[in-house]
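Hi C.,

You asked whether I'd gotten around to modeling the 278-residue construct. I have! Everything is below, sequence then structure, no commentary in between.
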Amino acid sequence: MTIYGRRRATNAVALSLSLGATALGLAALGAILFTLIAHGIEGIDFRIFTETTPPPGSSGGLLNAIAGSLVLTVLGTLMGTPVGIMAGTYLSEFGHDSWLANVTRFVSDILLSAPSIVIGLFIYELLVLRMGHFSGIAGAAALAVIAIPIVVRTTEDMLNLVPSGLREAAIALGAPRWKMITLVAYRAARQGIVTGILLAIARMSGETAPLLFTALNNQFWSYDLNGPMASLPIVIFQFAMSPYDDWHRLAWSGALLITLGVLGLTVIARILVSERRR
């Protein structure tokens, strides 16, 4: 076989392996989505949004879990997003390649890849043990720690994409540095930063492990942030582990709701990114 024939054969083998791996991944994803929809859709009805989680053998919904997840996610976003944006701004606008900036990037990368259960244990040691009880505040703090590194890296990357000419023009017109950052750099990177926040929210929405050690769960309707609070991931975990068929049905429906929520946020993030590239 000539050298060109070997190259064509190698290319054909590599292409076949790549297509096979892609088909395998898509098939696995399709099977998961099909199973989730097939089991979850039958439990979706009006009661799931209007009634709280029931005892075994009774009818009910997931209202308290949905509300608890929304509260925890909103609080986690409010706590983590400002920290992430400020840290990302420091890395891009002030720190650059200084030792503190490099240490911050290193710590952010470690947090980004750290197992969420480790973050849950950290917040358990930091807040739950000192407070003496599980609470919604501790759950939101754990979710905020998960969101911070995502927002940090996204903010830094998006600000780095802002042309230097925009900054120099603002400075040349006499704008102080803080005004240049807030009115010029943030405005130019706004879509990318919002996309990072949406991805962080999507990540927080499906986390279970950190909430087991912090917010725990609540079978009843409660807005008390100083006490245990229900959330969809924990309810899904507990109901799926139970021996009751009605709880299994609610667990599938809750999993479908989370998947649809994360899918919606991801689609919005993709749309924002595509608009930025135009």
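If it helps when you're writing up: Residues 3-40 form the longest helix (38 residues).

Thanks,
B.
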